[in-house]
Design goal:
about 550 residues, mainly beta, Immunoglobulin-like, seven-stranded mixed β-sheet, six-stranded mixed β-sheet, 33 strands, about 5% helix, globular
C-alpha cells in the first residue's frame, strides 16, 4: 500500500453514504478476498471484470427554440436531483443522490453554437440521509465559459423544493465537460454520493478527425469504499482525501466491454473526489491522447501512461485492430505518489475484442490522426503577452487542519461579503500564474473557472507532452511548481479557483478572482443574486 508519512498519522471518522449506477442489472459476482477499505463480507465484494460495461443515457431536450435576437438554436433540458438506490454489489443496494436518480447522470450532447438551458430541480431530501447536512446544491458545468450567475458559484445554492435554470453559450471548441455539484463545504460528499455527469460539445473539426457514435465512449471513473450494509463509507482521513478500494467506471466496478477490431475514442473523466490515476494498457501497447480538458490538442501524443488527476479529462484513442478476436485488453492503473492503494486499485476495466462487423468506409476506423488543431488560440499564448505574473502557494495549516491558497480560505471570502479576491484582472488581459505546492505529502489538481489555460512549465522544465493542450485543471504534485498562461474573458465578474481534491476544496482550499469589475462596484452578474432559484411547483 503506497502511503505517505503524513497520511499514516492522519486519522478520520467513518460515516455512511451511497453512490453508484442506479438501475444496473444484476451480474454474476464471485467472491474475492482482498485487503480493503470496505467493510463488506467477502461474498459481497465485487470481482474485477465480472460486470458488463454500461453507459448513461443521453438526455433529450424537453423543447427546442430559436433566439429571436440572432436566430441561434436553443435547446432546453431538465434534470432532477433525487435520492435513489443503485445495484452495484451482488445482493445489496447502495443509496445514492443522482441527477435523474442515476450515477453518472445522463449525458448531454450539443453542437457548438447551440445554446442550452438546463433546469436543475432539487427534489433531494432536505438533509443528507447519512451525514445530516442540508442538501442545498449548486450545479457547475466544469469547463464552460458561463456567466458568473450560471457558473455554479459555491454559495449560489438551490434548496430542496426549488429549481434553477442555467444558461450555457456552448461557443467553445468541441470538448468533454462535466456537470457536478459545487455547494460550499459539501461538494465532496455530494459528488461522492453521485451528483456528476458528462456534457459534450461537438463541432465539425472534431467530427471529421475522431470516432463518433458507438465508437465515441464516455468513461467516468471514480473510486468508492463500502459499509457492511452496502452503503458507501466516507472516510476523508481528517480532510486529507478519500481513497476507495473499488474502482467504478460509469458506476460499475471494474467493468468489461466488448470492442470491435477498430479504433475507439474514450472520453476519460476522473470523477474521483481525491484519487489520481496513471492509466496504461497491460498489453504494453501505447495509447494516443488527442484532447485535453479544453478540447483538441495541436498534435496527437503517443504515451505509455499518463498522470490523471481528479476533474481532468483526456480523450484517448485505443487501436483494437492490433488484437485478435478473443483477446482481453486490460486498462490498468499504476497510481501515483500520495494515493492510498489496495489489492485491486491497479485495475480500471477490461476490453474483450470481438470480430463483429463495422463500417470500414468511416476513415476513423484505422486512422490515428497526427496534426489536430495547430492554431488553437490558447496554445498560441506566449509569456511576452502577460501583463502580470502571480504566484499562488498551496498550503495546509497543521493547527487548524484547513487548506489554504496563498494563506486565504473560502471562509475569509464569505466573511468579506464575497469581495476579497486573489487577483483583480482586466477583461481580455493575459496573465501568468505559478502554483507552488507547499503542503507536503499531497498532490493538488488546481482548477480555474471561466478560462482555458496553457501549461508552460513544470518545475522549470517543459510540461509533460500530454499536457500540451488547452486545460482548466492541472496536476500539482508534492513539491512541484507549475506555471500556466491564460487570457481572462469573455465575461466580467467573480469566478472561483480551487483544489479539485474535493475534501481540500471544502476545508477550505478555494478562493476567487474578479474580471473587469472593481470591489463593491455594481455587479449585474452577481453570482448569488443575479439569477435566483425559483420555487418548484411542477
Amino acid at each position: 500500500m503506497a502511503v505517505s508519512r503524513r497520511q499514516v498519522i492522519l486519522l478520520g471518522g467513518v460515516g455512511i453514504m451511497g453512490a453508484g449506477a442506479a438501475g444496473a442489472a444484476a451480474v454474476p459476482w464471485g467472491s474475492v478476498e482482498a485487503k480493503s477499505a470496505s467493510k463488506l463480507d467477502d461474498r459481497q465484494m465485487p470481482r474485477p471484470y465480472a460486470a458488463e460495461f454500461t453507459q448513461p443515457p443521453v438526455l433529450k431536450p424537453t423543447s427546442v427554440g430559436t433566439d429571436p435576437d440572432d436566430g441561434a438554436r436553443i435547446e432546453h433540458y431538465t434534470v432532477t436531483q433525487r435520492a435513489a438506490t443503485a445495484r452495484i454489489l451482488p445482493r445489496l443496494g447502495t443509496p445514492i443522490l443522482g441527477y435523474d436518480g442515476i450515477f453518472p447522470g445522463p449525458t448531454i450532447e450539443v453542437e457548438r453554437g447551440t445554446r442550452t438551458t438546463l433546469t436543475v430541480r432539487n427534489q433531494l431530501p432536505a438533509t443528507h440521509p447519512a451525514h445530516g447536512h442540508v442538501l442545498a446544491t449548486s450545479t457547475h458545468l466544469h469547463g464552460s465559459a458561463s456567466l458568473p450567475q450560471y457558473d455554479g458559484y459555491a454559495n449560489d445554492v438551490t434548496m430542496t423544493g426549488f429549481k434553477k435554470t442555467y444558461h450555457y453559450p456552448n461557443y467553445q471548441p468541441a470538448r468533454t465537460l462535466w456537470y457536478h455539484d459545487h455547494s460550499a463545504h459539501f461538494t465532496a460528499l455530494n459528488v461522492y454520493s453521485g451528483l456528476a455527469g458528462q456534457y459534450l460539445i461537438h463541432d465539425p473539426q472534431e467530427r471529421d478527425l475522431l470516432p463518433q457514435g458507438e465508437f465515441d465512449v464516455g468513461l467516468t471513473i471514480s473510486d468508492a469504499m463500502f459499509a457492511r450494509d452496502g452503503a458507501l463509507s466516507y472516510d476523508d482521513r481528517s480532510r486529507s482525501g478519500l481513497w476507495g478500494d473499488v474502482i467504478l467506471v460509469n458506476g460499475v466496478p471494474w467493468p468489461r466491454m466488448k470492442v470491435k477490431r477498430r479504433i475507439y475514442r474514450f472520453r476519460m473523466l476522473n470523477a474521483s473526489i481525491s484519487r489520481s490515476l496513471r492509466p496504461y494498457l497491460r498489453s504494453g501497447e501505447p495509447l494516443t491522447i488527442v484532447a485535453t480538458d479544453g478540447g483538441l490538442m495541436p498534435e496527437a501524443v503517443t504515451v505509455d501512461n499518463w498522470r490523471h488527476a481528479g476533474a481532468e479529462r483526456y480523450e484517448v484513442l485505443i487501436d483494437f485492430s492490433k488484437y485478435k478476436a478473443g483477446t482481453r485488453v486490460e486498462l490498468r492503473n499504476r497510481s501515483n505518489e500520495n494515493n492510498r492503494d489496495y489489492d485491486h486499485t491497479d485495475k480500471i476495466m477490461a476490453f474483450d475484442v470481438v470480430d463483429d462487423p463495422f463500417d470500414t468506409s468511416d476513415p476513423t476506423w484505422n486512422t490515428l490522426p497526427t496534426v489536430l488543431v495547430p492554431d488553437n488560440d490558447v496554445m498560441g499564448l506566449t509569456s511576452s503577452m502577460a501583463v502580470k505574473k502571480r504566484t499562488m502557494r498551496v498550503k495546509r495549516n497543521d493547527k487548524t487542519n484547513l487548506w489554504t491558497l496563498d494563506d486565504q480560505s473560502w471562509g475569509q471570502i464569505i466573511a468579506s461579503g464575497f469581495q476579497d479576491v486573489f487577483a483583480q484582472v482586466g477583461l481580455n488581459t493575459v496573465e501568468e500564474w505559478e502554483f507552488e505546492n507547499k503542503s507536503g505529502g499531497w498532490f493538488h489538481p488546481m482548477h480555474i473557472h471561466l478560462i482555458d489555460f496553457k501549461v508552460i512549465s513544470r518545475n522549470g522544465r517543459a510540461p509533460f507532452p500530454y499536457e500540451v493542450g488547452p486545460k482548466d485543471t492541472v496536476y500539482v504534485g508534492e513539491g512541484e511548481k507549475v506555471k500556466v498562461l491564460m487570457r481572462f474573458g469573455p465575461h466580467q465578474g467573480r469566478y472561483m479557483i480551487h483544489c479539485h481534491n474535493l475534501p481540500h476544496e471544502d476545508h477550505d482550499m478555494m478562493t476567487q478572482f474578479r474580471v473587469g469589475l472593481k470591489a463593491n462596484e455594481d455587479d449585474p452578474w452577481d453570482p448569488i443574486q443575479a439569477a435566483r432559484p425559483e420555487f418548484d411547483d411542477d
